[in-house]
Amino acid sequence: MGYVTLVEIFKHPITQKYLRRSGVHHAVNVTEIAYRLASERKENPELATKAALLHDMGHFEWYREGKWDYDEYRRHDIHAIKGAERAHKLLIRLGENRVKAKEIAIAILLHTDSYLPFSVKEFRTPLQQIIYEADEMDELPKGGHHYLQMENEEAIERLTSIDQKIQEVSDKLQSN
Ligand SMILES: [Fe+2]
């Protein structure tokens, strides 16, 4: 089983379909923040960045008169559940290791608790906490971060650079 890169995940038609909806700009920003936090905290940057890239792929669009209806969205939101499921299916399809795919899916499931009747704040693992914090750091009021655009070319460039950094770290670990 080969290593699955962020760029491979990003280019897949399923990722393209769902990240177009929830915002490529936000997905890439959160991935970069998650990389930084994982490096600072000595957590696994591969799992953190994959979960960050896909964390919002479960979003639905709630439009009313051509605009996103934020209140309507709040009422029906299960994006973390959908996202965890979609991400897991996609990763397995791409040949991801099953243990990693599960960890990534759970980090997506718990990246927010706004859809749950209780808080998961005290129960997040350090990896899950990174996705939660990275997402918060890129959030804009009224879901504005979902509207910001980014060309695929720029997204691929930025994700390639993260893929390379992760590769360098793992090469270094292996040569030690
Ligand atoms: Fe998000």
UniProtKB/TrEMBL annotation:
Cross-referenced InterPro entries: HD/PDEase_dom (IPR003607), HD_domain (IPR006674), HDIG_dom (IPR006675)
Cited SUPFAM superfamilies: HD-domain/PDEase-like (SSF109604)
Residue stretches making up the HD domain: 23-140
Name of this chain's protein: HD domain-containing protein
